Amino acid sequence: MLRKPRPEIQPLQSTVFQRPVSVDPIKIYEYLALGLKVVSTPMGAIHEYPLTFLFDEFGLTQAIERALAYKPTQLDWRKTDDLLSQATWRARLISMLERSGVTM
């Protein structure tokens, strides 16, 4: 169960000028599980993650302001729970095996 939202955010560090594409930062799941909003540079699929605010090389301040002002909804928490339930190593392994044609 997630904690109640607090007016806190967690920056997710990445090199701003080198945008990684095939990256899935494990820490983001920890931050979301703690009920924190995340501010990050664009990488991988995190643009689809709930409670995640992206910035480019000039927009860090604005992303932080958006994150601090945003009030999470019940839908945000449901999306976060769904995301976290699929972020286990077991769920990832099953997904990889299924994509490889292996059934369990």
What's the structural blueprint in terms of helices and strands?
Blueprint: E1 9-12, H1 27-33, E2 37-40, E3 52-54, H2 60-69, H3 74-85, H4 89-99
Parallel strand pairs: 1-2, 2-3
Structural shape: globular
Class from secondary-structure proportions: alpha/beta
Q: Would you list the SSEs in sequence order as H and E?
A: EHEEHHH
Oligomer: single chain
Through-space gap between termini: 29 Å
Flag low-confidence runs.
Answer: none
User: If you compute it from the alpha carbons, what radius of gyration comes out, rounded to the nearest whole angstrom?
Assistant: 15 Å
Q: Describe the largest sheet.
A: 3 strands, parallel
Secondary structure: number of strands: 3
Total tally of structural domains = 1
The total of helices stands at: 4
Give the gist of this structure:
This protein is of the alpha/beta class and 104 residues long. Helix content is 38%, strand content 11%. The longest helix has 12 residues, at 74-85.
Verbal overview:
There is one protein chain. The chain is of the alpha/beta class and 104 residues long. It has one domain (9-99). The protein has four helices and three strands, in the order βαββααα. The chain has a three-stranded parallel β-sheet, sandwiched between helices. α1 links the parallel β1 (9-12) and β2. The two termini are 29 Å apart. The mean pLDDT is 84.
List keywords for this structure.
4 helices, alpha/beta, 3 strands
